[in-house]
Amino acid sequence: AGQTLHGIMKPTLVVAGAAGVALVVSLLRAAKKHGFGSESSESDSARCPFGFSTEPDSETKKGLNARIKEKKQVVTTLYEEYIHLKAVQEVWCNPKTANPYLEPAFCAAMHSIEIGMLLMGTFLQDQRSYVTKRQRIDAVSRCIEHQCILVAELIDSTTSTCHDSTTSTSHDSTTSTSTTSTSAHHLDQTHRQEITSLSQSFPFPNCPPTITHGQGGGRQSASLRYLVAAVSQGYPALCASDQLALRNVVRNMSGAFDAAFSSWSVGLGLEDELNDLRIAVQLLPLQSLTDRRSCLYLDYTAMVRPEVILATLQSESYVHTEDFFFRSVHLSTECWSFVALHQLSSALRFANLGKWYEAAALMRHAALVIEYMGSNISTLGCMNLRDYLRLKVEIEGTSGEGSSQVKELKPAARRMLPPLVHAAYLAAVSGNESSASDVTSDDDAPQLMLLIYRWPEDHGALHDYALALEFLETSILGGFYYRHFSLAVKVIGSQSRGTMNRSVQALKNAYETMLFPCLDAARTLLGQIMDRELLVNKGRIMTEIQRKRERAQTAVSTESERASPPISACSTNADASAAPAPIPATTTCCVVTAVSFPEAIALDASSWQVCQRVDALRQEIFGCTRYDTPQET
């Protein structure tokens, strides 16, 4: 049939062109519908009169996917080059300690702090008269204070968590195979070799490199030196109010450094420069920072290599006034993304070994880091809109969408769920729970999670882990992606498009889709079950509160009746034409009327007790609701 149609329509194709093609296609469809050529063994491409398949072959699909992947890679490469990420990553990938575990994450976190101090220096040197320096400096300084806490928690809590895991067995571990025990022992031995708290005496095995004060131990931050120079030069020219604001910023920032790292037995390496910064704004040096001179300092220069951050400013000429600010905040986000992924990776290892409390602690710290990333990126709201839009036009072609680390946050978080589901299944089987027999696919995971939520006293460690997952989800969706959307709305408007020509409204998808829908389904199921089981108690507490209020009102009314003289109402048999007693003109006349009580009662309402009595009579006789004020009564 196909050959016959092809022979008939060939002249038409030559003459009619596109119209002929359409007609041939319709005729072929009709022939197929009526069964012509249905027994042919030829392929679809052979039956097509033009020799083409209607579906793309595998080679075409591969080529299309390759082009998409190549385009995404170009976006990522441009983004990383734009924010100078490669040079910073070189430091993270080349640690100085013998068995590095925390050093890469520590260096990434300190790079972000270096970026903040460098930004403060550039803000002070900004010559634009229409830009408020105080707003920017305050925003970045608060970020630095927040980061000091995160760094201290990164070192102290992680070493504590790992130390606890080496000295005690996991609570509620649901796997007991010899393979798991061997892996746990290997991980524990690795942590014994690699992780030790910085609060103990130096040196110790596998400790980070250190130097003395005489070797320049207290002055190792290139960005802090830049900030001290900028403050020393710009502080005298500031007005009195700006000087006071800057002095407060320096006091808070130096205090945050001191508080965060005072428990370490080794100096961070910035102590003398922090005191120099205090002196530059006419503050006294902190004695606690000065006392560090008698101990060792971390070899901050060798480990962190802060000159890499300073080079991001000095190695390039910035044409646009908001360019360095924009790049630096994105680079800082990449630093903390690295830390968050590091913590999630460690948490996953503990979860696979059944160490749920340790894994939950690391997940919570990762969540706090991601929350901070949202606060950090929000500082871009301080940019001047006109000046940023001039920059936006020229960076068309890449954006934060090119961040491979930020895009990895959601997949890394989702990988934290399967160990919990598996452990819940084992717990259900061991407890002969009916929910275990109902599990036939991943869609039944909410039934397993329901077991953990409903009986947390029996599954304490798994329940703690589930709560950490909830916190992680909230931090990623609300703490970071929602703030990213809000920033875009604030900076360029809700109906605009970003540098990748993507609408701002499209950013909503990033925070509207849940990471752990099975946890949400389990919470919903538990709510429905509890509502049915406890229906008899519905509203009990509110009902009791209302009864207490009514009893109190009744007691007040009774007390008022005893304290006030009785008030006699006019008899229903009294003469309707009888005039009421005269009332002085200076008093307020309160008249109470009703269909079943036609007589008017005139009362002297100057006394609130009388009004309360009237109110009690109204309630008793007519069932009227009481009023709140004498005037209303």
Summarize the structure.
With 633 residues, the chain is mainly alpha-helical. The chain is built from 26 helices and 4 strands. The strands form 2 sheets. A two-stranded antiparallel ribbon has the order 1-2. The protein has a two-stranded antiparallel ribbon with strand order 3-4.
Description of the molecule:
A two-stranded antiparallel sheet has the order 1-2. It has a two-stranded antiparallel ribbon with strand order 3-4. The chain has 633 residues and is an all-alpha fold. Helix 10 runs antiparallel to helix 11 (271-280), helix 15 runs parallel beside helix 18 (404-414) and helix 21 packs across helix 24. It is globular, with a radius of gyration of 37 Å. The protein is built from 26 helices and four strands.
What's the helix and strand layout?
Elements: H1 2-16, H2 18-33, H3 44-47, H4 58-82, H5 85-92, H6 103-124, H7 133-167, H8 178-194, E1 210-211, H9 222-234, H10 240-261, H11 271-280, H12 287-290, E2 297-298, H13 300-304, H14 307-314, H15 323-352, H16 356-378, H17 385-394, H18 404-414, H19 417-430, H20 434-437, H21 445-454, H22 460-492, H23 509-512, H24 517-533, H25 540-563, E3 589-594, E4 597-604, H26 608-622
Antiparallel strand pairs: 1-2, 3-4
Helix pairs in contact: 1-2, 5-6, 6-7, 6-9, 6-15, 7-8, 7-10, 7-16, 9-11, 10-11, 15-16, 15-18, 16-22, 19-21, 19-22, 21-24, 25-26
